[in-house]
Amino acid sequence: MTLVRGDWFYILLLIIDSFFMTRPYLYAIQNDNYRVGEIFKNKRLRFVYLLDVITVTIFCGIWIAFWLLNAKAFWGFLIALFFFITEFAMYFMEDLPDRKKPLRYTKRAVRCLLTNTTASTAIVCVALAIATKHLADEYVRYLVFFAFPLVYPLFFIIVTSVVNVFEKLNNLRYEKRAEKRLDRADLIKIAITGSYGKTSVKNFLSAILAQKYNVLTTPQSYNTPMGIAKTVNSLDSTHEVFVAEFGARRVGDVKKLMKIVKPTYTILTGINDQHLKTFKTQENIRWEKCRILDVGDGVCVINSELKNITESVLLSKKIIPETIYAGIDENADIYATDICVSEN
Q: What pLDDT was estimated at residue 269?
């Protein structure tokens, strides 16, 4: 690969630009379990890309104007420098922490960030080397840098899709290991899911059970397959109870978690329209949450407000588990009375 001396300055700018450019795309897929298929349904990303197109168009116009005027290469250098500064500023401002959840630099996120930055730099270097071989005009060669932001989203999707294949294989290994460690006859396994109240119920239940048993609980909102797999790494022979929170954003999420944990007791806290965007329909939400009832001859504790929904689901099962309806309704199997709320 042949590059001229001045190319390395542009490549250094490109590396920095790629790093900043990757972050908003990474943020978008991180909040969708690293799925890239619907990346351009994100309104914020579409807006950022539109700004990129406008920026590239303006600077390309200036660049071509100087080329037609046979300006010295120094002016091309200044134009490129200001272009990259504008790109840095735009992506830096886009990444300001005005979101509910900032980008989390997990190991997977860092791997994705570095892979995209490295791969994009390598591709542009190859493209620039090819341009150097066939184009003598320096102005024309450096149009490669201006074209890069326009094709970057497609490039990000391709690279991340390849990375995801290896990530899924790696995750599957951890999930299988967790499934094997949880396969203990003496271990009481409890799973909690619902559209709301999961973490609170998990914390209350764990505190109560800890009075008698050695309990391992998924921390915070570790409610994904990998979150549960990481928690299970701490499981040892002294633990008597495992309490897991199950999160779900799409059809199949609860089913996958049930396969890993295989709980003997489950709790369904409630169902509403949360994550309707990813579930597509309310029916999908109801059916996916009700997969928590697939405990065979185990026990399900269900919010009494969901009795009509869950009874119809239970009738479709070959093995109907023991069900306990709990709430504030006096018709429930277990209900609370004399509820008081104090400021303390």
A: 92
Among residues 334, 183, 178, which one has the least CA distance to residue 264? 183
- CATH number of this structure's domain 183-335: 3.40.1190.10
- What does the pLDDT read at residue 94? 60
**What confidence tens digit (pLDDT) does each residue in 162-217 have?**
999 999 999 899 999 999 999 998 999 999 999 888 999 999 999 999 999 999 99
What is the rounded CA–CA span in Å between residue 257 and residue 190? 12
Cβ-Cβ contacts under 8 Å for 67 (sequence gap 6 or more): 76, 137, 139, 140
pLDDT at residue 95 in the model:
56
Burial of residue 331, with CB atoms counted within 10 A of its CB: 0-12 exposed, 13-18 middle, 19 or more buried: exposed
Residue 204's alpha-carbon distances to 111, 192, 198, 258, 288, in angstroms, are 36, 12, 10, 22, 24
SS3 149: helix
- Could you say which residues of the chain have pLDDT below 50? 1, 96-98
The residue assigned the tokens 């150097």 is: 132
- Domain spans of the chain? 7-172, 183-335
pLDDT computed for residue 191 by the predictor: 94
- Residue 12, SS3 per DSSP: helix
* E strand or H helix at 217: strand 215-217
Indicate the angle between helix axes 225-232 and 253-261, nearest 10 degrees.
Answer: 20
